[in-house]
Design goal:
Length: about 290
């Protein structure tokens, strides 16, 4: 069930009490209000290129600033939203915010491709490519600037349907990343059939690398697998300099994690980028303007 798995222990929703119609109704209306009353926020976490130290990619992660429950993590309301179908409204809000933000950054000369997380339920919706395509047009953002992240299990729920949608998204120019790679059950033959651009190694393996040889073996093998298939590879959950250096040695392409930056609201991310650029002499502007 959803709530206990998350770290705050907030009992937001418990699947075992699925019959509690009143609680569900209340949560439903709270979620609706969240979208209508601007209680949702998008934070952005950078992905750092381990070879050049440039930052050209960020991941959008939704947050719910609830008036009485406080900060509610997406792990606590996305699964509920998926079950109730309200995910559609949230996803539309997320996609529009992310694309609008991408356009705003571009207008300031900041080139950042933005990735959004897409859940299983949306993936099998045939309207997803049309929705994205309309939003990209509305804000004048090239499709190549938009990435979507999907988990293996989201694909394996209904592989044929999922692959159809992914093919259509890819035909538009939208890039695809497999999130939490290695944790779901997936078949490598599906990986071969899908228009994937990037694998994201799940943070459990990356965080375990320091202590467990098996985790490092999994990380190393995933990097090799990705490269042998012509894919980029990202390590998520990079929490130390040690892990970052090791990943660079293993030729991992990109790193994401608290050691580099937590997910941040847009203005804070811009501050972080400025500082990053000062220290590293490189930037998301693609050229070295520090000298
Ligand atoms: P994810 O896409 O795998 O995102 C990575 C999660 O790991 C994020 O949690 C991020 O804050 C956290 N993280 C990043 N770096 C580190 C690190 O160094 N150490 C640790 N311990 N954690 C790190 P968050 O933001 O709570 O999101 C949780 C999950 O909720 C996401 O996992 C994603 O599956 C889902 N999610 C988030 N936003 C959306 C959304 O807009 N739509 C959908 N459908 N799902 C979303
Ligand atoms: Mg993700
Ligand atoms: Mg992940
Ligand atoms: Mg995850």
């Amino acid at each position: 069930y959803v709530a206990k798995r998350a770290n705050s222990g907030l009992a937001l929703y418990d699947e075992r009490h699925d019959d509690n119609g009143a609680e569900r109704l209340s949560l439903m209306s709270e979620l609706r209000q969240a979208v209508e009353h601007d209680q949702l926020m998008l934070y952005y976490q950078p992905k750092v290129d381990l070879a050049t130290h440039t930052v050209k990619f960020v991941e959008a992660l939704v947050r719910w600033d609830h008036p009485t429950r406080g900060y509610v993590s997406p792990d606590q309301f996305i699964p509920f939203a998926e079950q109730t179908g309200y995910i559609k409204a949230i996803s539309h809000w997320v996609a529009e915010q992310a694309i609008r933000q991408c356009a705003a950054w571009r207008a300031e000369g900041i080139e950042l491709a933005v990735s959004v997380n897409v859940s299983a339920r949306e993936l099998i919706q045939s309207s997803l490519p049309d929705t994205f395509s309309a939003l990209l047009k509305k804000y004048g953002v090239p499709a190549e600037m938009l990435w979507i992240e999907i988990t293996e299990s989201a694909i394996m729920d209904d592989p044929n349907h999922a692959i159809q949608t992914l093919d259509r998204l890819h035909a538009l120019g939208i890039r695809l990343a497999i999130d939490d790679f290695g944790t779901g059950y997936s078949s490598l033959s599906y990986l071969k059939r899908m228009p994937v651009d990037e694998l994201k190694i799940d943070k459990s393996f990356v965080m375990g690398m320091v202590l467990h040889r098996d985790d490092e073996t999994i990380v190393r093998s995933t990097i090799d697998l990705a490269h042998n298939m012509g894919l980029k590879v990202v390590a998520e959950g990079v929490e130390s300099e040690f892990v970052m250096r090791r990943l660079a040695e293993l030729r991992c392409d990109l790193a994401q994690g608290f050691h580099l930056s937590r997910p941040l609201p847009p203005s804070k991310l811009e501050d972080w980028l400025r500082e990053w650029r000062c220290v590293n002499g490189v930037s998301c502007f693609g050229v070295d303007r520090s000298s």
